[in-house]
Structure formats: structure tokens, C-alpha cells
Design brief:
alpha+beta; about 250 residues; 10 strands
Length: about 250
């Protein structure tokens, strides 16, 4: 019996999130069906996170135990031969017996893409937030540094969340305009964990500060308030990517 971790990436625009839901297309349901077909075993799988409907992943980790002896370097090839075009496996490794894709995770990095252009681009329709008003990436980057540190992020959590402990530690965050496509503004954030809609509310807050709808330098006071209504709107899921999983 081996404990394996497979890394996948997916375009979330055609899925209702990661977790299995009745009569809905989800990443977990599709991947689990293909894995069962390849391994010839009905193995339960563990995902590193629960991405929402429309959210993408550049790196998503799945662990499972199997008696199948397909070599690790061959398993992604076998999976990709059967997976749909919007999911791809790109790595597989044997991990210690006590490894758990979710509970062994030490942190994650998310990426949020904003198409900052007066003109729409249909090729980015479901992969970036279209924002037609001018953005100053350097200003946004400076403001975003107030997210750093250990805080109670209740103000940056969806109101319907039932998570009791909302303290998280943000170790990195930043905003930049991409040099290979200057229309694109990228927000990245790394933390030991994230609350429901936390990254999307962080982005919405920065955008409302840019638009003058929230005062400059307000992030610290919003965090201190613990009040969801003090923060910005929840940015659309289309721009959000789980970028890296830390173990």
C-alpha cells in the first residue's frame, strides 16, 4: 500500500468548485472517477483545499492510498489520457504514510488576476476580473502591506462562515503590473490559512480604495473592526487561482 500525492491544475470556470455535490460537475467528482478507472481501485481521495465555483488552480494537491504499482512518473500520463481538457495532472510522488493533503499543509499562496483595460478581452472572460478604470499597482502594493502579520480577519470573511477561529498569519502579499502583458494586474498573498472569500474580499477592498470609495490606509482599521461591512466587495471568482501549496 503506497501513499501518493498527485498535483493537478484546472480551469475552474466549468466546475462548481472542488467538493463533490449532487448532480453538479465538480473537480473532485471528475478526478475521482478517472483515478478509479486508471488504478482499477475505488480509492477515497483527500484534497488540499475546497476551491469555490469558478476558482482555478495552478497547483492543487490530492493524496490517496493505493495498492496499484503504476510508477509515479507514469501515473500523471495515464491520468491525463482520460481527464477532460480542463484538468491536468503534472506531478506524482510517494509521500510518508502519515501525509495528509489537507492537514499536512502549512500554508497556501493565492493569485488574483485583474484585466485592467478599458476594453474587454474575451480570452480572459472567465480567467481574470475585468476592471476598466485605471489602477496604480504601486499604490495598491503599498496599501496591501497592511495585510501582513497575524490578525483576526473576521472583516475579510464571508458573513455566512461558521468558522470560529478567524486568526490567520499573512506572510507575503503584493500587487504588481505584469511586464509581459501590461493590462494585467496581479495580487498574490501567502498565509498559513484562508477564510471563506478572504482573498476575494482583500482584492475588493484594494479596488474600492483605488476608486476612492474607501479611505487610503484603512486596512488596519478594517481589520481591527472585525466588521465585514467595513471591508470592500467580494471580487468575482473568475480571477482567483490557488497558486501554490506549502508542506
Amino acid at each position: 500500500m503506497r501513499n501518493l500525492m498527485v498535483k493537478i491544475k484546472y480551469d475552474g470556470s466549468g466546475f462548481c468548485g472542488w467538493q463533490v455535490q449532487n448532480d453538479l460537475r465538480t473537480v473532485q467528482a471528475v478526478f475521482q472517477t478517472v483515478l478509479r478507472d486508471v488504478l482499477k481501485e475505488n480509492v477515497p481521495i483527500i484534497g488540499c483545499s475546497r476551491t469555490d465555483s469558478g476558482v482555478h488552480a495552478n497547483e492543487f494537491c490530492v493524496s490517496f492510498r493505493t495498492e496499484c504499482m503504476i510508477p509515479c512518473d507514469r501515473l500523471p500520463l495515464a491520468l491525463n489520457a482520460k481527464l477532460p481538457p480542463d484538468i491536468a495532472a503534472f506531478d506524482c510522488q510517494q509521500v510518508p504514510d502519515d501525509f495528509h493533503a489537507r492537514y499536512s499543509c502549512k500554508g497556501k499562496q493565492y493569485r488574483y488576476l485583474i484585466l485592467n483595460s478599458p476594453l474587454r478581452d474575451p480570452f480572459w472572460q472567465s480567467r481574470a476580473l475585468w476592471y476598466k478604470y485605471p489602477l496604480d499597482a504601486d499604490f495598491m502594493n503599498g496599501q496591501a502591506q497592511d495585510y501582513l502579520g497575524t490578525h483576526d480577519f473576521s472583516a475579510f470573511c464571508a458573513a455566512n462562515s461558521d468558522v470560529a477561529d478567524k486568526v490567520r498569519t499573512v506572510s507575503q502579499c503584493g500587487v504588481r503590473r505584469l511586464t509581459d502583458d501590461e493590462r494585467m494586474v496581479e495580487f498574490t498573498v501567502t498565509a498559513d490559512g484562508f477564510l471563506y472569500n478572504m482573498v476575494r474580499i482583500m482584492v475588493g477592498t484594494l479596488l474600492q480604495m483605488s476608486a476612492g470609495r474607501l479611505p487610503h490606509g484603512c486596512i488596519k482599521s478594517v481589520i481591527s473592526s472585525g466588521n465585514r461591512e467595513k471591508a470592500g466587495f467580494t471580487a468575482d471568482a473568475c480571477g482567483l487561482y490557488l497558486n501554490k501549496v506549502l508542506y
